[in-house]
Amino acid sequence: MSRPETTPDPIRKETLGLLARAPSGRLAQLLPELPEHDLLRAPEIGTVMVRGRAGGTGAPFNLGEKTVTRASVRLPSGMVGHGYVQGRDKGHALRAALIDAMAQQDAEGVEERILAPLRDEEVARRKAIATQAAATRVEFFTLVRGEDE
Amino acid sequence: MYVAVKGGERAIDAAHAWLDRSRRGPVDQPVLDTAQIRDQMGLAVTRVMAEGSLYDPDLAALAIKQACGDLIEAIFLIRAYRTTLPRFGASIPIDTAAMRVKRRVSATFKDAPGGQILGPTFDYTHRLLDFRLMADGELPTEPLAEGDETEPAATPHVLSFLNRDGLIEDAAPDETPPADLTREPMELPADRALRLQALARGDEGFLLGLAYSTQRGYARNHAFVGELRIGMVAVEMDIPELGFAIEIGEIEVTECETVNQFKGSRSEPAQFTRGYGLTFGQTERKALAMALVDRALRWEELGEEDQGAPAQDQEFVLSHCDNIQATGFLEHIKLPHYVDFQAELELVRRLRAGLSDHEEDAA
Q: Which InterPro entries does the entry mention (chain B) (predicted)?
């Protein structure tokens, strides 16, 4: 498995992140029928140790684990896809791996059918929270006391 | 000495069956499902994730349901489940400066760049019971106010401004791989990375009490909350089969940075020092307590005096902050100890018999 570090493919990196964060139910709606594939790695549930940094920027430390599910597939075309997604939904990891493989042979179709809606929905979810947060933005004033004159 | 007992299977089965029924409650009430716990008891869920040391809201909700709301029991269930899962690796350290914040306050700078955002907080509530929640639990009728945020703005760390002027000690980048107390037994003295791991999964109540003790004067270090922020951060990991890092999800965390009393000497100019708290979910009391205890434990590296305070004693703090270790040892004493006790009883009888012989001799 170990290969020299390759330059990240920014589009594939963004796609895999989007798929990892997507609600698994939504992914199942967008890809209801699984295309024909071979399993290179059957969906597997595990954890990843999440690290933080002391003081936010200093030495790393182990904060705690999170659940992650992964899968790898090969399409009949030979295209290989990998999925690493949050949570414990095996269907989510499998679909992420399939979409990763499909996106490498039909980038435009996958973008239009699956990735664009996921991205738009995520932007909308984030914006809704940011808007709520902005409504609680506060200005504090310190008062000058009379005896300070 | 441990001696096995046997028997009692039928009674144990009956006890567990009763527990299952009492968990369900009266059958004319709707059953509580785990999605409701996850979404409507969110702060209980985040506490279980933080101290269970496993971020998975669905599992935490299930554990709370199974434990009938006993959060330490729920944390125990999560810790036990975690050990059954393979670990794929460790993440790249999360970048909390890039957090999408829903709450961010500073008690030290009222005009912190990026602004102060209260978020969904209990602060400034009057702590009066709201009987409307008992009546119907419906949403309030007035619509939520909306801010005019179009693009979520970046919110730099407040302490980075102090740091720029050299007024606070630096948290300089360092890539030392951290020790992991879930893999190797913790050895004392523990470095700061190991201490932070232990505190992050430590019991909120225990850390709250210790943090409070520092405020009351047991190793006082006069903490200000430089910044407290809650929000979502991306979790990235290097994927060997890809050869690069991808986001494998996003998590909610609470981060607290304290600004503490200064250090300095004739040769070094005075500088504020730091304490740090980072926890899963919306867990600000815990993050704040963690930061105060982290700071107290740093006395030696900051050249402070050992005041003999509990919060300064890492052997004391780190060996007792884990509520699963603590409850395991505490609660085991209610299980059968008949043979141990028999031995003690014999000993007391012998001592008493010896004493009465002695008294007779003296008479």
A: PhnI
B246 to chain A, closest Cα gap in Å: 6
Contacts of A51 in chain B (CB under 8 A): 90-94, 178
Average pLDDT over residues B193-217: 97
Pairs of residues, one from chain A and one from chain B, whose beta carbons lie less than 8 Å apart: 252
Across the interface, whether the CB atoms of B200 and A64 are under 8 A apart is answered yes
CB contact at 8 A, B118 and A79: no
Query: What is the arithmetic mean of pLDDT over A83-103?
Result: 97
Is residue A143 less than 8 Å (CB to CB) from chain B?
no
Asked if B291 and B275 touch (Cβ cutoff 8 Å), the reply is: yes
Indicate the residue of A48, A54, A126 with minimum beta-carbon distance to B276.
Answer: A54
Judged by CB atoms within 8 Å, which residues 12-71 of A form the interface with B?
12-13, 16-17, 20-21, 44-68, 70
- 3-class DSSP assignment, residue A78: coil
Mean pLDDT to the nearest integer, A110-116: 96
Reduced to 3 DSSP states, what percent helix, strand and coil does chain A have, rounded to the nearest 5? 45, 25, 25
- Indicate yes or no: CB of B174 within 8 angstroms of CB of A58: yes
> Is the pLDDT confidence value at B8 over 90?
no
B173 Cβ contact list (under 8 Å, min separation 6)? A53, A57, A58
User: What's the DSSP call for residue A115?
Assistant: I
Torsion-angle region of B247 (φ positive above 0: left; ψ -120 to 50: alpha; else: beta)? beta
| CA distances from residue B326 to B200, B331, B346 in whole angstroms, order as listed | 16, 8, 30
Phi and psi torsions of B311, nearest 5°: -70, -15
Q: Which two tokens stand for residue B45?
A: 């869920």
* pLDDT digit string, tens, across residues B114-150: 889 999 999 999 999 988 888 877 777 666 777 766 5
A84 touches chain B (CB under 8 A): yes
Kindly write down the DSSP assignment for every residue of B156-219, as one continuous string.
--THHHHHHTT-B-------PPPP-TTTS---SS--HHHHHHHHHTS-HHHHHHHHHHHHTTTT
pLDDT tens per residue, range A119-128: 999 999 999 9
User: Mean pLDDT of all residues in chain B?
Assistant: 91
SS3 B16: helix
For residue A55, give the nearest of B242, B244, B274 by CB distance: B274
Which H or E run includes B13? helix B9-24
Distance CA B293, CA B321 (A): 11
CA distances (Å), origin B10, targets A16, B19, B23, B332, B336: 52, 14, 20, 21, 17
The answer to whether B44 and B71 have CB atoms below 8 angstroms apart is yes
Q: What pLDDT is stored for residue B141 in this prediction?
A: 67
Q: Is the dihedral of CA B25, B26, B28, B29 positive or negative?
A: negative
B91 with A49: Cβ contact below 8 A: yes
Cis bond before residue B30 (omega within 30° of 0): no
